[in-house]
Amino acid sequence: MFVSDFRKEFYEVVQSQRVLLFVASDVDALCACKILQALFQCDHVQYTLVPVSGWQELETAFLEHKEQFRYFILINCGANVDLLDILQPDEEAVFFVCDTHRPVNVVNVYSDTQIRLLIKQDDDLEVPAYEDIFRDEEEDEEHSGNEGDEGSEPSEKRTRLEEEIAAQTLKRRQRREWEARRRDVLFDYEQYEYHGTSAAMVMFDLAWLMSKDLSDMLWWAIVGLTDQWVQDKITQVKYVTDVGVLQRHVSRHSHRREDEAHALSVDCARISFEYDLRLALYQHWSLHDSLCNTCYTAARFKLWSLHGQKRLQEFLADVGLPLKQVKQKFQSMDVSLKENLREMIEESANKFGMKDMRVQTFSVHFGFKHKFLASDVVFATMSLMESPEHGSGTDSFTQALDSLSRGNLDKLYHGLELAKRQLRATQQTIASCLCTNLVVSQGPFLYCALMEGTPDVALFSKPASLSLLSRHLLKSFVCSTKNRRCKLLPLVMAAPLSAEQGTVTMVGIPPETDSSDRKNFFGRAFEKAAEGTNSRALHNHFDLSDLRPEVVLAGWQDTPASPGWGLQGGAAWLPHAQAVIELKAEDRSKFLDALVTLLS
């Protein structure tokens, strides 16, 4: 059920308890976790933190700890599945779920005892009515009217029997009609996957309601929202709306800080609203490197071609920036050039067809020396979390979580260097794919596969990194192709996951359209294609909704797949973040054939 009063129905309940905290491996979840940790530290709440990257880890961790805890908090995992069915908890277990994944599973919505949803009700949830999807079982009373009829005339018995048969027939027909309506209602509700309000923003609202919101918490909420924007999880309208909400909090905190004696302390965090350039990491890089490795500019200049490189030179000349200046670190550029740089670049960008060169965002100053844009922190934290240099996922999670604290700026700067490497590798891989025509049409979708041995292929084995590459590749392909039909197609991309196990990661990215929705049909299509071909597929990522326990490892351990979920041909594609599946390499061909058939 939805929690209406977060303070009374959630925080005051767990405040005096030992709680287990499950946190998904995404930047927004980490930011929400940091806010909740700060609140727990303030109120001396005992908790255990367990990072989970997928359904397998969540189920394993729950089985390991379920005897020690009664209260469980799930951040960015669990809302879009029937938790009680998957985890099979004891009756006294209570789950508080703060998750951006939509749609919310209907069983979770109408569970009055064990599931408590920490989800903003003003999100466009469109949950079906209870009577449309649940129905009390009615007892059949086929013979209830026959008793005591011994003395009745045969004609009366026959008439009564005919009436009972007619009533039962009507009841069965009504039942079939209700079940058909239920299937239609659930299909309409569950067919697309999308994201709601940032989990970090939800947790910050809780802190604000309790008058315990600190500047660090506000910054984490900003980073959580920016993560959703960077990864295309929310619409531009939703992003701008939430930026406005956070901007009011920034103004309130600024006024509060002005009244405090340590307003200019070396240790303070000063947050500012910015209308800044849409260039990745440019303040920690050279302007030239940022222009070349930002998807927005690289795609529109077509920097994988000689003509694109020439257009970049023309752009810099139009801005009036010497090549020597733009190729050195941004911090070392002449102050006179940096004064009006944003306005100059925006003016020239408009001439070159880039109308969205500046975006609404926020920055933070830690003391007098360290300044970061919210997107800088997102890229750095994401790179730390998916870096192959850390041995285990838990180590990567810990490094990423620590980098969000102002006392660990060395880790944040290390994350920035990893992010630069990731962005360079992304653009180099895109150039290679486009120049060698690796993006091919499979009919209803585009397909691109990275081969084992491709430079930097290890950097794209994780879902977020591969999804980022896929989105950027699709944007670049749309800018490069002259085929109007191909511009409207989605993209399926595959990358090697484990050479030893012979597995690949596949990501589905809906097409580049002008639609403002951020919804996706690929999760359903992947599930259906894997089931229909008995492909050894692992649906282990939290983005796949309506997951059934028997589907999680469909074919991965040679278990029988569950009955198929009807996916209708000619599906309406709407843009969204991604759908992810892990697959045995030798099953890829039949999986793709099934996907083509499903979506044709």
Automatic annotation (TrEMBL):
An example Gene Ontology biological process: double-strand break repair via break-induced replication
Subcellular location: Nucleus
Presence of keyword Cell cycle: yes
Biased composition regions of type Acidic residues, renumbered to the chain: 136-153
Entry-linked InterPro entries: CDC45 (IPR003874)
Membrane-crossing segments per the record: none
Region (Disordered): 136-161
Cellular component GO terms held in the UniProt record: centrosome; ciliary basal body; CMG complex
GO molecular function, one term: chromatin binding
Keywords: Cell cycle, DNA replication, Nucleus
Family: Belongs to the CDC45 family.
PANTHER family for this protein: CDC45-RELATED PROTEIN, CELL DIVISION CONTROL PROTEIN 45 HOMOLOG
UniProt name for this protein: Cell division cycle 45
Organism for this UniProt entry: Bos mutus grunniens
